[in-house]
Amino acid sequence: MPKETFSFLCDQLHPYINPQITNMLDPVPLEKRVAVTIYKLASNVEFHDVANLFGIGTSTACNIFWEVCEALSKLRRVFVKRPKTVPEVQAIITGFERKTGFPMCAGALDGTHIPIIAPVSYPTDYYNRKGWYSVLLQGLVDHTYCFLDFDVGWPWKCHDAYVFECSHLCHKLEDGTFFPPFSRNIQGVNIPVLIVADSAYSLTSNIMKPFPEGTVRGPRAAYNASLSHARIQVEHTFGCLKGCWRLLHNFCEMQKVAYQEPQEDVLDQPETGPEQHDVPALSPAERIREALVAHIHTNQ
């Protein structure tokens, strides 16, 4: 993390951490508290190793870590937030269309596995087919690889579509409160703000998925390619999340911290289960998808 980014993080945390309010005769400065926490989060070494490195007691290192983590959690709504105004959602839509050619897209949705220590209750529910324990993370990201929304904690056995259907994201999309009111007429069809996802999800008026592979040619194949290009933004984001800033991802993306590919993919994402078979979709969703097919084909 560059020095400028670290200083900015300290400034953001300052209102939530007051090193002067302590029983210690010589309180640990804010910058040192943040450094202790960042080092622990990045390395996951034992507290006594962190304490020796920074010249403080083990119990002090532990207390500092949890204090700063609590402060970091209070910044969630500052760095993980959905677009709440029309200009904000328009900026994301424009970013996706410039990068991928897919119109009216304001987010890419997918799920991935996050390794955990075996839980005490129902551990077998969390033991995945790759031989380790994990929970599912559902992430919605924008064109800059930042999370707009997430849902985490489901056992690995839960299908991506089920996790989505149980999430507050799904409920807010259904009642029209997740994105601000905005639409665009494409090929004579009123297109709302859209999210792109893979074939594991159901096709709805807000969720666009690809046509089944091997059965499409021409304009529909072009649509699939454009959607795939848009959807890969979330896969890239998961790669960065696992390879580097697992707990400070959005903050570091916004600060343009350089990401280096890990030497080996120790957190390879297992499959979440078989994809759902296509079922007849609602006619409004079909009309939206066909309008997008025609638009993408025309603008190739």
Can you put this structure into words, describing what you see?
With 300 residues, the chain is an alpha/beta fold. It is 43% helix and 14% strand. It has helices at residues 3-13, 30-43, 47-54, 58-73, 76-79, 86-100, 160-165, 168-174, 219-243, 249-254, 283-298, and strands spanning 105-115, 134-141, 147-155, 183-186, 189-192, 194-196, 207-208. The protein has a 5-stranded mixed beta sheet with strand order 3-2-1-6-7. α1 crosses α2 and α2 (30-43) packs across α3 (47-54). Belongs to the HARBI1 family. Keywords: Hydrolase, Metal-binding, Nuclease, Nucleus. Its main location: nucleus.
Brief characterization of the structure:
This protein is 43% helix and 14% strand. By secondary structure, the protein is an alpha/beta fold.
